[in-house]
Structure formats: C-alpha cells, structure tokens
Amino acid sequence: MPYLKITSTFFLLFLSYLVYGQKPDTTVSLREALLLAEKNYPLLKSKYYESEAAKKDVALSRNTIIPSLDLSYQANLATYNNITGMLDPSGIFPISGPPSAENKYQPVFGSAAGFSMNWQAITFGHRDAQTAYATAGVNQKESDSKMELFRHLAKVTNTYLDVALAKQLIAINQKNIKRVEFALIQSRTLTSKGLKPGVDTALFQSELSKSKIELLNATEKFETQKILLSQFLAVNEAINTKDSLFFEKFPQAHAAISSDFSSHPYISYPKSILEYSLAKEKLIKRSYLPKINIWSTAYARGSGIKYDGTVKASDGLGFSRFNYGLGFQIVYPILKFSDKNIQIQQQSLMTQSIQQKVEENLLILDKKDQISQLTYNNAYLIATETATQLQSAQYAFKAMQIRYNTGLVNFSDLIQAQYNLLKAETDSQQSYWYIWKALLNKAVTKGDINIFLNELK
C-alpha cells in the first residue's frame, strides 16, 4: 500500500512536470486563435505584400499618360577634324560642321544644354488595356491572398480541435488510472484475506503500468499538437484550448446549405487567373495598333570655333546658338500581323486551359459537398450510438466490480469490462470531435468558415 502511494505520487509529479513544468501555456479561444493566425502568420503577410506590390503596377500603367521631360547638359574638350562621307556612329562620336582642310590637334571646348519632351498622346486603347491588365493582376493576387487565408484558418481550426481532443483523452486516461489503482488496492485486500489469488495483484499492477504508458503517450500527443498549433499561429509559446463547448453539445447546423460555389475561394482564385488571361489577350490585340507620339525640344550649343573658322577655345563653354522644335510621330508595325495572330491564339489556348481548371474545381467541390454532407449525417448517427455505448459500459463495469469483489467473476472479466468502459469513454469524446470535424469539413467545402464559427455562439 505505501509503495503504491509513493509510486503514484511520483508518477503524477513527473507528469505534472511534463505538462506544466515547462513554459506556461497561452490559453486562447478558437476565435482568438484565428485572429492571431491572421495577424502573425508569415505566409499571409507575404501574400499581402504581393497584393500591395501588384497595385503599384496599376499606378505605373496610369502614369504612362504623363509626358517624359528630360533635361541634359554636356561639356567637352576635343579636336574638330571632320570629313565628308557616310558613317555608322556605333562606338564613334561624330564631329559636326564642314570638312577640315587638314588635321589640327589643338582641342577646343564645346558645350550643349537642352530639354526634350516625349508624349505618347494617343494609343488607341493600348494604355487602357495595360491598366486593365495590371488591375487583373491585383485581383489575382488578392484572390490568392484570400484563398491562402481561408486555407490557413481552416488548418488552424482543424488543429485546434485536435488539441481539444488530446486534452480530453488525457483526462480519460487519468480517470482510468484511478480506476486501476482502486482495483489494485481492492485486489491486495482480497488477496490478504485469501479471497483472491495473488496473481491478480500482479496483473492489476501490470494494468496500472499499461495505463500510465497510455497516459504518457496521450500527453506526448497533446504537447505535440499544442506546438503545431503555435506554429500555425506564429507564436513562441505553446497554445492551449479554452473552448470546452466542443465536448458539451453537438452543432445544430442540420439544414443543407446552398451549393453555389461562385464565391468559394477555391473558385474565385482560378477565376481571377482566367480574368488575368483575358486581359492579356486584349492587351496583345491593342499592342499592335498605331501609336501617336508628340515631341518637342529646345537646346543651346557652344563651340570654341567661330563660323569663319577662327578658334577661341574657351568660348566653347558658353552658348552661342539656340534652337527649338515640335513635331509628332506615328508608329505602326505593318508586318507584325502574323506575330499578333500567333500570340493571340497562344493566349486564347491558355485561357481555355484555365477555364477547364475552373470547371475541375467546381466538379471537385460538388463531389466534396456530397461527401461532407454524408460524413456529417453519419457523425450524428455515430454520436447517438456512442451515448448508448457509454451508458451500457458504465453500468457493466460497476456490476462487474461488485461481482469480482464477491468472487463471482475473475480478473479477465473485470479487466475486459474496464477496457470496454475506457473505449466507450474515448469513443464518446471522439464522437463529439468527429461531428465538429465533419461540420468544419462542410464549412471548408462551402467556402465559409463562419458556418463553423456560428455554432460556437
């Protein structure tokens, strides 16, 4: 008897250290956990920054309506020997002015300053198509961000349920240890009176060790799930669950919900890719239309050589001649029709491919919706049976305890009743967990996590 008390006390102290002796847990409700995940998780932040970056493309495309205005100034010290004839200026700085009678190697100063303005005034819809393409890119990034958020919140909710179940299983195993300890004490008493064989005490001691091992395994799983939940919330400390409602009542969402998946994140995202592809098709078509550019310039030049050939090198640093100009230019790629048609056909095929992916997602969601409804209905039937199973197992165990103490049954009969009770208690808690998981599955299939959260009110 003293040995049993010392061993049990030591075991409970050791278990308490495993569960509580480390960093204290942060206990949060499911809604608090979802808010933490949305605020902290790095991938969600990454998606947000991608969306914000895409918005800058829209601003850049709109800015193309603003003319470009370039200011420049230059000064040089160079010789001025020139000759008549054609020249490809690549890699060579040409000389302005008439041909030179001979080579002179005394350099003179030269200078120039001016500004040039270029304005793509009329694009025949190309600018609008570019802006629409950039806007479609923003919509795609935002849809991707919403889809990732939805997926992550579902993952957090799923893990939260796993943590809650693991906590319940620890309590069940602790209760089972107490039952075995009580049976062991009774067995020793009956053995000392010669009413039971001594082997029963050894068998109960073995069962106690098994029960403690099960508790250690349950505790390990609980701690693992808490760490995993903290990962999804991007926090350092382990996270524990606050909501006990999951094991107190069943959700009441019995009615079938609309099967319209048009706003589902798993549909909205591929649709945004489809719109992006269509916008690119339009951009390709508009990119081969004419463009009208308006330009203007004004500049001044200075040279150390006078109009009559006299040289005064330092005068080149000042300006002596001034000019301006204004004009327009029409650019039209006449021989690019073949390229345009090939590009349009290519992008059209890409659009059709994306459309088929949308259809596939709709098909998958429709079938998952049917499966989720079937799973949800089955979970209710299982929950009804586990309630009966638990009630019967409790009655049978109590009756078997009395029969064992009076010598009507042996150890095997009692321990089998105890196993049945442990399984019934476990199945009972898992049936609650299973039906909440089934509801979460329905919410994910419908694309609305609030279907699940509304049941927590």
From TrEMBL:
GO cellular component: cell outer membrane; efflux pump complex
One Pfam family cited in the UniProt record for this chain: OEP
Subcellular compartments: Cell outer membrane
Chief location bin: membrane
Cell division found in the keyword field: no
Keywords in alphabetical order: Cell outer membrane, Membrane, Transmembrane, Transmembrane beta strand, Transport
Any one Gene Ontology molecular-function term assigned to this protein's record: efflux transmembrane transporter activity
InterPro entries: OMP_efflux, TolC-like
Family: Belongs to the outer membrane factor (OMF) (TC 1.B.17) family.
Protein name, UniProt field: TolC family protein
